[in-house]
Specification:
The complex is a heterodimer of chains A (363) and B (254). Chain A has 363 residues and is an alpha/beta fold. Chain A has 13 helices and 5 strands. Chain B has 254 residues and is of the alpha/beta class. Chain B has one domain (5-247): P-loop containing nucleotide triphosphate hydrolases (Rossmann fold, 3-Layer(aba) Sandwich). The chains are: A alpha/beta (363), B alpha/beta (254).
């Protein structure tokens, strides 16, 4: 008799599981369709319909060229009818995104733009920043024909990076896709296999338990990788998603995807162990996925939340996956640069699988 | 010819907490026979089978399958047996060919799905899903999955429950073919006509004990010799014979 091959058994399970996943409508909808729909919807909103509300201080110079240029930018919505007090309040609530105060100087340069951003609206602040950068570049290069620049800008923080919402959105969508596939998919599959006695039938063959887990994980990983690659490529070619180092960035993102998926599958194992029937899987899974979906910076930067909520955000694993993903994708970071995020994900891995080993049921 | 035991069960006990499901049973299954495990629900049949199949731990006793002990060589036993579970499902969303391919991988055996499906006359259903099969087809498919590793013994747990008379007869033929090809068959059933027709020997299990073990013929002769008489005189045919006679022996899909 030939020696029994665990690899062969594992691969057989992986192939079976992969076939089953791609034929399951919910897996395809959650992992591919939803993220893509979100990207299409939000990227288009982010692209054209967005306006940045900018309060104009009472003392602002509204006659000079700087103000005129800002007035001509369609995205910038200048608000002049608020009192200084109201304006400050609106800014702190994020109802307006920034306050500008242009001053005509008696010395050179002739204009100074003082600008106040708000933590409550970081993304629009970011959009404004990049707009102002390009405005100033134009203004000052026009001024280059004369010996002095026309205006200078004074802001607390200025980032030179060109901001695109897709760069923020896509990694979040990838995280969401991995989260739902890992948690819902794993929980449903293992509960289903247990309840329909498929696993029991497997145990009547010489297959090892590790092969069953590994085969399932492998199938889900390959499926998630294909999904991630698809989302990244659609994002890159149709929505201008930034891949700083091209293929290397993509590979790094796929490695991060694998790490994220493995952790999220741990939640799925736990749920499959404590769920009594298939109807209890969705509520349990939602308890895990919804907070992370909303609080881990999938659509909005977590810095937009009040500080007590940020404490919660800063615990969740998806927060760190998203953060690492974004650093890799548009800061051009390597995996070695996101070790802090990876460390916290590593702690999650240990905690989740310690619980999963206790709660998981084979029969 | 001396019959060789291929399964030996000695003083098998299984307790679930305070409840004793199997209370010290012993029996042998001979190589190449169809052995029936009969008894009412909850008698301990399935528990006994699952212990022999290495799917369940025993509390005490000894079980030897084809020379291997369930205590030490569960993996060797698994490679030598085929198991059909009562009401077990199959991996979702896969067709029959793909399921056979999966089981080939699980057993580490290279066989083509068509080879296995042809043994149970299901080649035309190769692309069908398990859930879309009729009751009889489902049972035949289950039996196909038990034959992949050329087992020495197969275990069938109530394979004919819920089948119509034609499908039942069809399955009996299949089980006899398997026995004639040299495979030992251990079967449980609630239908005594089936056991009488199919089994070479039967054991009656009740309340966790074996209350009798012999050939069906011998049991019946013994009972008759003890003076037992049916209240109603047995006719030369029964209603099932009428059913088969009226609707035809041909087994139909559906």
């Amino acid at each position: 008799m030939n020696k029994y091959s665990n690899t062969k058994a594992t691969l057989a399970i992986a192939v079976a599981s992969f076939r089953s996943i791609i034929r399951s409508p919910s897996a395809v909808v959650f992992s591919l369709a939803f993220p893509l729909i979100f990207i299409v919807v939000f990227a288009n909103i982010g692209g054209s319909a967005v306006t940045v509300d900018v309060g104009v201080a009472k003392t602002c110079d509204t006659t000079g060229p700087v103000y005129q240029v800002l007035k001509d930018i369609k995205v910038v919505h200048l608000i002049t009818n608020l009192s200084a007090d109201e304006m400050a309040k609106s800014l702190s609530k994020g109802n307006i995104d920034a306050i500008i105060n242009i001053q005509k100087n008696s010395s050179k340069p002739p204009y100074t733009l003082n600008i106040q951003y708000t933590d409550a609206s970081q993304q629009k602040g970011g959009i404004l920043k990049s707009l102002l950068n390009s405005v100033f570049y134009q203004l000052n290069s026009r001024g280059n024909t004369s010996p002095q620049p026309v205006a200078e800008m004074k802001a607390t923080t200025v980032s030179g990076r060109k901001y695109k919402y897709i760069d923020f959105l896509l990694p979040g969508m990838l995280g969401f896709s991995l989260l739902s596939s890992g948690v819902f998919g794993t929980a449903f599959v293992f509960l289903g296999l247990r309840l329909t006695l498929v696993i029991k039938r497997f145990f009547a063959t010489p297959v090892k338990r590790a092969s069953i887990i590994l085969g399932e994980a492998l199938a889900r990983l390959v499926f998630s990788w294909i999904g991630a690659l698809f989302i990244i490529l659609v994002g890159h070619y149709f929505f201008g998603f930034t891949l700083v180092h091209g293929v290397v960035t993509v590979i790094n993102m796929l490695i991060l995807s694998a790490i994220g998926l493995i952790i999220f599958m741990g939640f799925g194992f736990i749920i499959s162990g404590i769920a009594k029937s298939e109807s209890t899987v969705p509520p349990l899974s939602n308890i895990i996925t919804m907070p992370q979906f909303l609080l881990s910076g999938t659509f909005f930067a977590t810095t937009a939340f009040p500080s007590w909520l940020q404490v919660l955000s800063n615990i969740l694993p998806l927060t760190y996956l998203n953060k690492a993903m974004r650093d890799v994708a548009f800061e051009g970071a390597g995996l070695g640069d996101v070790t802090h995020d990876l460390l916290i994900l590593g702690i999650w891995f240990i905690v989740i699988y310690a619980v999963a080993v206790k709660t998981f049921k084979w029969e | 010819m001396v019959k060789q035991p291929i399964i030996t069960v000695k003083n098998l006990v299984k307790n679930y907490g305070d409840f004793a499901a199997v209370k010290g049973i012993s029996f042998d299954v001979y190589d190449g026979e169809i052995f029936g495990l009969l008894g009412p629900n909850g008698a301990g049949k399935t528990t006994t089978l699952e212990i022999i199949e290495t799917l369940r731990d025993k509390t005490s006793g000894e079980v030897i399958v084809d020379g291997f002990s369930v205590d030490h060589d569960a993996d060797k036993i698994k490679q030598r047996i085929g198991v059909q579970l009562q009401s077990a499902g199959y991996y979702p969303n896969l067709n029959l060919s793909e399921l056979i391919a999966l089981f080939c991988g699980l057993y580490g055996i290279d066989k083509t799905p068509m080879e296995m499906l042809s043994k149970v006359a299901l080649t035309d259903k190769a692309k069908a899903k398990y859930k879309d099969l009729s009751g009889g087809q489902k049972q035949r498919f289950s039996i196909a999955t038990t034959l992949i590793n050329n087992p020495k013994i197969i275990f069938l747990d109530e394979p004919t429950t819920g089948l119509d008379p034609q499908a039942r007869r069809n399955l009996w033929d299949l089980i006899r073919e398997i026995r004639d090809a040299g495979t030992t068959v251990v079967i449980t059933t609630h239908y005594m006509d089936e056991a009488e027709e199919l089994c070479d020997r039967v054991a009656f299990v009740d309340g966790g004990h074996i209350v009798g073990i012999d050939t069906p013929n011998h049991f019946i002769d013994e009972l008759v010799a003890s003076g037992f008489e049916r209240k109603k005189q047995v006719k030369l045919a029964n209603l099932e014979d009428v059913f088969i006679n009226l609707t035809g022996k041909e087994w139909r899909e559906g």
